[in-house]
Every structure is written in structure tokens, then in C-alpha cells.
Amino acid sequence: MGDEQAVFAEGVVKKFGDVVALDGMDLTVERGQVVGLLGPNGAGKTTMVRILSTLLAPTAGTARVSGFDVVTQPDEVRRAIGLTGQYAAVDEYLTGRENLRMFGDLYHLEPKYVKRRSQELLDSFELSEAADRPVRTYSGGMRRRLDLASSLIARPSILFLDEPTTGLDPRSRLGMWAVIEGLVAEGTTVLLTTQYLEEADQLAQDIVVIDHGRVIAHGTAEALKDQIGGDRIEVTVVNLVQAGAAADVLRTVSTGEPAIEEGRVSAPVSGGSTVLVSAIRALDVAGIEVSDLLLRRPTLDDVFMSLTGHAAEEEPPVVAKRGRKGRQS
Amino acid sequence: MTTVAPVRSRPIVGWAVHDGFVVARRNLIQSIRVPESLFFSLVQPVIFVLLFAYVFGGAIPIPGDGANADEAANAYRNYLMPGIFGQTVAFAAAASTVGIAEDMRKGLIDRFRALPMAHGAVLIGRTFADAARQILVLAVLSITGFIIGWRITGGLLNAIYAYLLLLLFAYTVSWVGSTIGLSMPNPETASTAGLAWLFPLTFLSNAFVPISSMPDWLQAFAAFNPVSTLVLATRELFGNPTGIQPDYWPLQHPVPYTVMACAVIIAIFATLSVRKFGRTTSK
């Protein structure tokens, strides 16, 4: 039954006047799973999260969270979820601790428990030193961590994170990722929206790609990448004249026709690093001088591009770029 | 996360009051943390007292009082103070408007709405805190008034009634202010809109000039304006000069009319704003 799932949505439609924000969204998140909702600006990610967190009523379709209908049982849904939106929605005049106390009180938790849990969260989110300072003295990263801590005060089993790292500097972003990974390790179900492909790849087991309010692809990061083709071997030659020869060599190990682009020759391969070793030997035997050689897996950027015909609107401003994905030789 | 957070038992006062109190506490802490805002909310009415008492004071005659110039000026100051009180508590609404609009912009309203808390508690807390702040404002104003010669001559109990009536009015207009705040696209617009209606409301009343000095068509409006009846009621309760009242029912029964008007206004605007709160961001 659908009731067992953390999130079950079927045919969700949301119209704002004439604008169709969601056009029949289906979404299932199993308990303990981390699902990344990926799409460009305006794809409907936030609208979907707002519907699931009872802030918006769908125009049509059904959505159940933790087995409760978001329209008819909003309070039950609210008790089961934590929500962290695109802004750090904390009171900036209160201290970090006062914020946590306020949200704990509003969840109707026992005061003693709120006190203990607040300290626990402040400690694990590295906010204990700043705990008794007003939030307006916090950095952007600290505010986001406090915001996330606030949504965890009641230990929700399901967490909605709407672009949790938008606007953060790379260091704070990595810190936020670590915090989210910790929650996931504890068994929290997470639905995460992001326009950063890196982020979805890093955090989510299952990725749902949406565009124009509809699901256009669904699967693990690996499956999505396989869907548009497997690994490619890329060789950069020192002498442009040797490009043709390099292509001939690669043809002996590749599964398809090599492509030459300036001094760079690439070809689809299967077999991972064994192929890489054979290629290096063959190139050496042929006397081809190589300045760079790597085995590259398609990135989610490639996936997004091939699925939507346009790139995700913003580049991930994260330090780790291609290098992390491709196994450099 | 297998542990479940322990939920406390329902307080005797009910969740709405509990949650309202939590939000009010937050709003009151806020005003302590921003002393500048508190300071200017005190300075402004004091400036009004001084301006009206010394600049306009001599020019506005209070019918039935003051044989010579000195007595007339003193009578006007005693007439003026309840007017300033009334105007000041009416302006409490503007703080609610801006406060709600800022909470909306910061995403706090969304967060509150996604909590399993009582509906309307955010608004109950907001209006309660904004009215509570007026206690301090009224205290500072009363001291200023005392210094310039304003005296309470109607007895202690009546004076307490007067202050309570003023606070009830502050609470009432805070609901109007909150409703406006929920309807505004951003805090900047809210701060303009939050004030716009308050000037005609407070000046088209007997706060600073006797209603009898207004043209007939304005007299009718001013007579039914709850600011007029609030100010008249406090004048009577403080034992200050009231001037001569035109023959309108509210002006003959200012206390019951003011209380009734507050009840009706709260009923209308609490309903409107709680409903609006529920779908604020559902454009």
C-alpha cells in the first residue's frame, strides 16, 4: 500500500492562474531513502515541496506524506515532517538557542526535552559557541545550519530540503552536505531539491529529473548516466599530427568509432580501468606522445543536457568539478 | 531516527493560547533586542505632545474652558493628552503591519505554517505583543504629560479603566494592521500602507480638535470614528476637559460604543486575517 511510503504523489497538478507549475507529477519516496528532485529554475521543484509540506493545496491529484493526505490531514503531515526552505527561516533577533526553543514549543514538545535536544543539535551542528548570540551575528552557513537544526527539533522521520545550499559559499556547502549525510546515516528520509547536479549526485541515491512540472527521468545517478551512454576514454596528444594515429590505436580498444577534436581523441569504451591500461600500452607501442589521458564517466550535466535539450541554468559553484568524477590517469 | 520526541500534555488554556504566548514572547524579545525601534516608538509620541502643547496649543480653543490665555493653554494640554494617547495606540497597528510583512519575507510565516501549531497563534501572538508594548509607551507618555501639566482628576479606578480601554484599542487595531500586513507584497509597501489609513483615522477625530469645530459632514464621520469615542471616553475617565459634544449616540455613550466597536473590529479582522494566513503564500 502507498501508506508505507514516506511520500506518495500521483498526478499532482498545480496551476497559478494560467500558469501550470506542476503538470501531473508522480513521486514516490520510500522510507529511509534520499531522493533528489533535480531541475532548472521554474521546473516546479519548490511548488512540489510546498504541496508536500502542506503550504500549498494541489489543483488536482493526490499526495500523501507518511500515509497522511496533505489536503485533508495537514496537521498529521506537519507532525511527521521537517522543512528547510530556500531562506534561512529563523528569527534573527533571537539567539540560536531561543529559536530552537520557540520551534520546539510550537511542536508542543516537553520543555525539558526541547532543552536537551537543542543542546544536542547545537553541538552537532557546530553552533554551541554561537548558541547565545542573536542570529543576526551569524554567517550565512551558520544560519542555514540553525535553520536545518530548527526543522529537526521534533526528530521528524521525513525531511524536505528545498535547495538547502543555494547561496552558500563552497566551504559552507560542503559543511551542509556533511550534516545532511549524517542525518541520512541515522535513517531520516530526505527529499531534496536542487539545481546543482553535483549536489544531487553527492547526496541522493535516487534522482528524479523534472522539467516544466513533469518527471522526465528517474533513477540512480549511475543509471541516468548509463542511459545516455557509458564511459569514454579521452586522449590528448602532444602533436596534433598524431591525432589520427591515436584514433587508430583507440579503435582497437573501443566499442565505437573514436571522435577527433583538435588534439583530443575520445572513444566509448566498456571495461573500466583495464581498458585504460591496454590503451596506455598500445599508445606507447605506437610511439604516440600523450599529454593527458583519462576515463570519463558522463556527468549529470550531460544527462540533463541530453534529457531536456538545455543545460541546468546555473553551474554548480562548487570547487570539485569534473576531476572528481573522471578517474584521471 | 527511531526515537520519537515526547509531546507535552495539552495545557489548560489550550494550544491556541499556548502557541500565541510562545509567539508573543518571541516578538517581545525582538523589541528588547532592537532598542532603537523601541526608543523611536517612544520618542515619536513625546514629540507629538510637545508640538501640540506648545505650537498648536494656544490656537485651538476648547469650548467651555479657560477664561484667560494661561488657563486656556492649560485646558488644551489636559484636553490634548487623551488625544495623544488615542493617536499613539492607533499607530500600534503600523508595527503589526510591518512585523507581519517582514516575517513573510524572511520565510518565517511559511515555517510557522508548516508546524503542527494552532491556527491563528502567530497572529494572536503578534497582536498581543504589539499591544503589550503600548504599556511602556503609555507610561512614558503619561510621565511626559504630567511634566507639562496634565493631571488625572477622575479617580484611580477610572484611570485604570481608561488605560485598559486604550490597550484594548491597541489590540484591536493590531488585528487590522496584521490583516493589511498579510496582504502586502513586501515590508517596504507594508510600511507605507500600514500608515496611510492611520492619519485620516486619527485626525478626523476629536483627538486634537473638538468635533464641534468641524463642518457638518465631517462631524458625522468623526462622531462614529472609534478613535473619537476612545479619546472622549478616556477624557471622561481621566477627568479631563471634553469640550461640547454634538448630538450623536456614540458621543453620548463613548465607553460602550468603543468596547462594541473593538469587539466588532476584532471579530471581522481576526476572521479575515486567520483565513488569509492559511493561504498567504498560496497565490
Automatic annotation (TrEMBL), chain A:
Molecular function GO labels: ATP binding; ATP hydrolysis activity
Residues annotated as domain ABC transporter: 7-237
Membrane topology annotation: Peripheral membrane protein
GO terms for biological process, alphabetical: daunorubicin transport; doxorubicin transport
Entry keyword Cell membrane: yes
Broad class of where this protein is predominantly found: membrane
SMART domains assigned: AAA
ATP-binding as UniProt keyword: yes
Pfam families: ABC_tran (PF00005)
Any single GO CC term annotated in Swiss-Prot or TrEMBL for this entry: plasma membrane
InterPro entries: AAA+_ATPase (IPR003593), ABC_transporter-like_ATP-bd (IPR003439), ABC_transporter-like_CS (IPR017871), ABC_transporter_ATP-binding (IPR050763), DrrA (IPR005894), P-loop_NTPase (IPR027417)
Compartments reported by the entry: Cell membrane
Keywords: ATP-binding, Cell membrane, Membrane, Nucleotide-binding, Translocase, Transport
Family recorded in the similarity comment: Belongs to the ABC transporter superfamily. Drug exporter-1 (DrugE1) (TC 3.A.1.105) family.
NCBIfam families: drrA
Name of the protein in its database record: Unannotated protein
TrEMBL record, chain B:
Assigned keywords, A-Z: Cell membrane, Membrane, Transmembrane, Transmembrane helix
Membrane topology note: Multi-pass membrane protein
Signal sequence, renumbered to the chain: none
Domain ABC transmembrane type-2 span(s) in chain numbering: 36-280
UniProt main location, coarse: membrane
Claim: Nucleotidyltransferase is one of the keywords in the record: no
Pfam family, one: ABC2_membrane
InterPro entries in UniProt: ABC2_TM, ABC2_TM_bact-type, ABC_2_transport, T7SS_ABC-Transporter
Entry GO terms, CC: ATP-binding cassette (ABC) transporter complex
Organism for this UniProt entry: freshwater metagenome
Localization of this protein: Cell membrane
Name the record gives this protein: Unannotated protein
UniProt KW Cell membrane keyword: yes
Membrane-spanning residues: 38-60, 80-101, 135-153, 159-182, 194-211, 255-274
